[in-house]
Design brief:
This protein has helices at about 10-20, 20-30, 35-40, 50-60, 80-110; strands at about 1-5, 5, 35, 65-70, 70-75. The protein is α+β, with helices and mostly antiparallel strands. A hairpin with a 2-residue loop joins strand 4 and strand 5 (about 70-75). It is elongated, with a radius of gyration of 18 Å.
Length: about 110
């Protein structure tokens, strides 16, 4: 199933990546300002390797990208993917609103 240009596998990967609080925080940080993995790792009480794994999950979901700058890997948020998720969630919200309107119509028919 494709909803707003997203395949089920893409949606699953994005929501799986965002299901973790640390990964959501990483996305928030790199959407504000790009950061090296070592800079990100300094913000958490976990190893550099653990943060690197979180970034890899986000990257495979298309939520961030990495680019090597000398010895460091710079992480950037992917605004396009965030917009795609937002569009999908807006679609679900619209479905729910239409359902609520139909329920209201049924109740008003009495």
């Amino acid at each position: 199933m494709v909803v707003y240009e997203l395949a089920d596998t893409e949606v699953d990967a994005m929501f799986r990546a965002l299901a973790d609080a640390t990964r959501r925080d990483i996305v928030t940080r790199v959407m504000r300002e790009e950061a090296s993995i070592s800079h990100l790792a300094a913000s958490y009480e976990m190893s550099f390797a653990a943060v690197q794994k979180h970034v890899a999950v986000l990257q495979s979901a298309g939520l961030v990208s990495k680019q090597r700058h000398g010895r460091e890997q710079i992480v950037r948020g992917n605004l396009t993917s965030i917009h795609r998720i937002q569009t999908l969630l807006s679609h679900f919200e619209e479905v729910w609103k239409q359902r609520a309107l139909r329920m209201g119509d049924v109740l008003n028919d009495d």
